[in-house]
Amino acid sequence: MKRFDRASAPPDVQSTGRRAAWSLISPAAGWLTVFFFVPLLIVFAVSFAARGTYGGIVWTLSFTNYLDLLHPLYGRIFLQSILFATAATAGCLALGFPLAQYIAKLPAGRQGIWLVLIMIPFWTNFLVRTYAWMFILRAEGLLNSTLQQLGLIQTPIEVLYTDGAVLLGLVYGYLPFMVLPLYVALERIDRSTIDAARDLYASRWAVFRRILLPLAKPGIVAGCILVFIPCLGAFITPDLLGGARSMMIGNLIQHEYLVVRDWPLGSALSFVLMLLVVGAMALYFRTEAKLIGQGRGA
Amino acid sequence: MKSGTVWLRSTGIATLLFLYLPIIVLVVFSFNASRLSAQWQGFTWDWYRLLARDASLHAATANSLVVAVISTVLATGLGLAASMGLERLPGSRARHVLEGALLLPLIIPEIMMGVALLLFFVTVKIPLSLTTVILGHTAFNVPVVMVIVRARLRKLDPRLEEAAYDLGASPWQAFRRITWPLLRPGVLGAGLMALTISLDDFIVTFFTAGPGSTTLPLKVYSMIKSGVSPEINALSAILVVLSMGLVALSLALQRR
Amino acid sequence: MTRKTLPHHLAIALAAAVACVVSACQPTPEDGPKKTPKAGDAATLHYFTWSDYVGPDILAEFERQTGARVVVDTFTSNEELLAKLQSGATGYDVTVPSDFMVSIMMRQGLLEPLDQALIPNAGQLEDHLKNLPFDTEHRYSMPYLWGTVGIGYDSAAIDTPPDSWAVLWDRRYAGKISMLNDQREVFGAVLRSMGHSMNSTDPGVIEAAKARLVAQKSLVKTYTSERYDHLLASGEVVLAQGWGGPVARAMKERPSIRYVVPKEGGTVWADCLVVLRSSRNKELAMQFINFLLDPHVSARTSERLLFAASNKEARALVSRPVRENPAVYPPLDLLPRLEWMQDVGAAIRVYDRAWTELKMTRS
Predict the structure, then answer these.
(1) Cβ pair A145:B15 closer than 8 A
(2) Which of B91, B93, B75, B245 is nearest to B148 (CA)?
């Protein structure tokens, strides 16, 4: 489709076009600058400030917040969060890959319906869906009642307020983010490649390992990043499903801001979280570039 | 091959059920007559009736609606303009950077945005109120609108606009008569999506809400923390069904 | 070709945006541009209180009497209250900090001196609530509800009635214990069990207290200040550190629940009504405080929320079961054993750090 070629238009039309473009973009850019970028800069600035005795900010230059973060306990929280996020990503991958495969194989009309069905729960209230899992998993919840009624257990099993519950909540919340990119990648794979492999007596496992997996890699990478990053900053899930036990960075940041009121330390924590997110994204872009460089063909 | 397909199909359906299980459970048990236990003890509308009488819930609903409508209108306007501006911007470098920057709020963990806005309002000495909630909601909804509208824009045939210019139309006329009618379903769909996201938002609202600015998700959170269960089920069921309806509508509009 | 490139709706959106930002920068009496006050009255009272202090019928009566509207927001700990106020939530008129938080707020200049002429009911305070250490002449605060912190337990599940904080460390009840989600109260309990004052400022002592709490963490099901009445009533926990009132509520649902203040002593607390300096309805706020301190209103509040009222006459007006329930109205002979929580000044940083480390520890 030939686009209106502005480059070949006379200069005054070009500059009018550019000016018009900028005047259209600037309100949104301005809004995000004021209410997104500047706040993030303020967080960065506050992370170098000190805390008043009862909370609040004392504007002196201080590196103590970052030095404090070197305490092993903070390192453990970061590690824990990364582990949780990784485990959740793995879980999403394990559940999401077969689902994406299935959808990719469906006739075109049904694919659309399935995709819509998968996205709809994601757009509903996250808090409410997490509460639903509380309702199901608590000691007097649906799971335990059902198991007890079926006679499978005598006393309730403690599922709520465990790491497992948090993991379940994370996988549940971000599964659609994994399925969509996987679906896009799998859908592109040419059926004839697979059929050819079959004709050559390749086993199903070999087809999976040698053909599907490599060709789906861009989708896998994209899905992993889309799940990993929000899981890293998760707050509601560990708060409601984890009880007192599993603290992730998100909870710690909330704790520092709204309980202990150590805003400078909370800001330092936020900034480190930001670095982790940027690091994950950089990893993603590097991997994507490498994949493109390698060429996506078999 | 057959058993492989069967395995795939059953896994697929099982995963889909897993996605919908909590929602179905919520809706079903919101009618459960038992107060404490999760065993079915008969059908009742009681919890919905209790909700209907709860005045603080009405206030929270009103707040949620005010925030959602205002922030959606703002975000849709800003996002639509920015999307169109980006389309017209020549040169790939500036455009890429700008695109990335404007879409950044989608990727940042929400808690970061929440605390950043809190610190911003404290530093600039803007008191927390419903207005600060609206400002925050608009900020994170602009990229949402942009993603949807830009997908729509890309599908538009530029020759139509070109033809309009050739026939002597001003840019405004071309927009109003040609582009806008074609874009409208996409814009409405984007608006509905932004509305849903605003209605459901918790984290950013949690940090930026001031006196009397409790929205529905904040109310649900404090109800959950206090452990009052059956009304939460009913309220949750309403919220979920409402969101699902709005999203389905939005998707339907986007497909036209 | 004209230069009109801005579509109409964008212009309208921009104007609305500017209006929003402008209105955000100016304090307004109402929240948000769309809130409409009740017909005929512009006064709205913003009441910021504990999540279990809300009694809608009591508030409705105040609204009827004065024609004002009461908007309630809630918090679950003193620290949360202070955090919200420090975050710039300046629209509140009346709030209810606990004793030590009153002194902190006084020190930070957050409170408005009370006009005693507007609060005649203040003369009827219980004796032990007059001359409180943090605000001896009640210049800034009026005690509203008071009580103790102790242990709620299910006597059907615990063989011998507990009398010491140590029972919360008993391995037999692992996973069935809940503690308050309150930094000072949790440390208060362990400090008293170690024989120290709960207002200790000694870092070594606080560190030792933290070690004991870390050792306990694997036994604790959850740290909650709001759900322990439900947890006790449903049997999910058999031991809960808590304020007396919610335990009394749990007693109604499960009669085997009892309440005890351990022999090592614990907190005696009083939540006080204060008016914020940033309030825009100071007179209405003080009227509200007077209303809440009225003996009949106090008695109804006490009956409903199951907390002891500060008004002396209210004690006679509450029903016998409530008056004689030690979880609601602590026996006055208990008082010598109990300690008032006080502001620990700069040492709060040590507590903050210790509390954070406790929360971060894996159990």
Answers:
(1) no
(2) B75
Q: Are B227 and B13 in contact (CB under 8 A)?
A: no
Nearest CB to C83 within list A20, A161, A258: A258
Q: Please judge whether C345 and A53 are an interchain contact, meaning their C-beta atoms are less than 8 angstroms apart.
A: yes
Nearest residue in A to C5, CA atom: A20
Q: Could you give the CA distance from residue C229 to residue B117 in angstroms, rounded to a whole number?
A: 35
Q: Does C360 touch chain A (CB under 8 A)?
A: yes
Task: Report the sign of the C-alpha dihedral through residues B127, B133, B139, B142, in that order.
Answer: negative
CA distance A184 to A216: 9
Residue C294: what residue type? D
**pLDDT tens, C156-177?**
999 899 999 999 999 999 989 9
Which tokens hold the place of B133?
A: 């909630």
Distant-in-sequence, close-in-space partners of C15: CB < 8 Å, separation ≥ 6: none
Chain B residues 196-255 within an 8 A CB cutoff of chain A: 196-197, 199-200, 202-203, 207, 217, 220-221, 224, 229, 232-233, 236, 239-240, 243-244, 247-248, 251
Query: Which residues, 6+ apart, have CB-to-CB distance to B228 below 8 Å?
Result: none
Collapsing DSSP to helix, strand or coil, C72 comes out as strand
The pLDDT averaged over each successive group of 10 residues in chain A (298 residues) is 51 67 89 94 91 80 86 87 94 92 86 86 87 87 85 83 91 92 85 80 79 85 90 90 81 89 91 89 82 60
For the record, the structure tokens of B29 come out as: 């048990």
Two structure tokens written together for A241: 């499903």
Closest CA to C129 of C272, C315, C297, C307: C272
Answering whether pTM is above 0.90, one says no
